[in-house]
Fold this sequence. Notes:
The protein is an alpha/beta fold. It contains 11 helices and 15 strands. It is 38% helix and 22% strand. α1 packs across α6, α7 (237-244) packs parallel to α11 (292-298) and α8 packs antiparallel against α9. The mean pLDDT is 92.
Amino acid sequence: MRVLLAGATGAIGRPLTRALVRDGHEVLALARTDVSAAAVRALGAAPVRADALDRDGLLRSLDGLAADAVIHQLTALKAPKRTLTADDPSNVLRVRGTANLLEAAGVLGAGRFLTQSLVLGYGYRDHGDRFLTEEDPFGVPGGTVADHVMTGLLEAEGRLFAAGHVAGTALRYGVFYGPGTWFDPTPGSRATPVPLGGGGVVPWVHVEDAAEATVAALTRGRAGEAYNIVDDRPSHWGELAAARGGRRVLLPGWALRLMVPYLGALMLDTRLRVSHEKATRELGWTPRRPDHRSGMRAA
């Protein structure tokens, strides 16, 4: 296929671009700057100079181009802010970015659209020991500081599934680890803040496994469906930090909540286990790294 990829230089975008090119797909990658354009070329893709949040500029840049599919992998996961608002950069990319890229798909004549979603949309709370599936409620606000994330994820998926001109699939990724993430095993990577005692339990996925799942979904994902993309073993934040090695910043729970309330909801309140059985059954995908221990050892 010929694919327009937004987010090619991000943590998942880099391995995804390499995987798409490896499998024979032609990748057009959005690039806002000369530096991004050079990085895109180095990955084997052709840069398209445009900003996904600049609707008019984006559509002009695509005039005369064609593609079979659009993949939305844009995020703005920098240092967490103390408070989350509706105009949080990642939320803007999920909502306005999705709307603009859906229009771009129409200009390109693309019939497929994949978007990045998160398993955290099931809720920042204690879900017990049961493994959740795609049939469980998603995007329901819980009255916490994380509600803007919930509503942003739900709106992004809703826009995609309601679009009549593309076959849309949402990929609900676990928490990323690996190169370019908070849990980057590369020597010299920045210290990772984690709660004393390890914190809550969440699903994880190595960025390279997430990329492989995305490539599989490009041809096998069903329209109007969401897929959980996680590894086999949910684990608490402290386990990942310990397996990663390097420097850690250990914070008591009260300090974490005081400094960044969102991280308190994410790292302390959330106990979430999620099944990837549907992705395995329908996409033919299983994680090559079944848990963080094998993933960190490989790194």
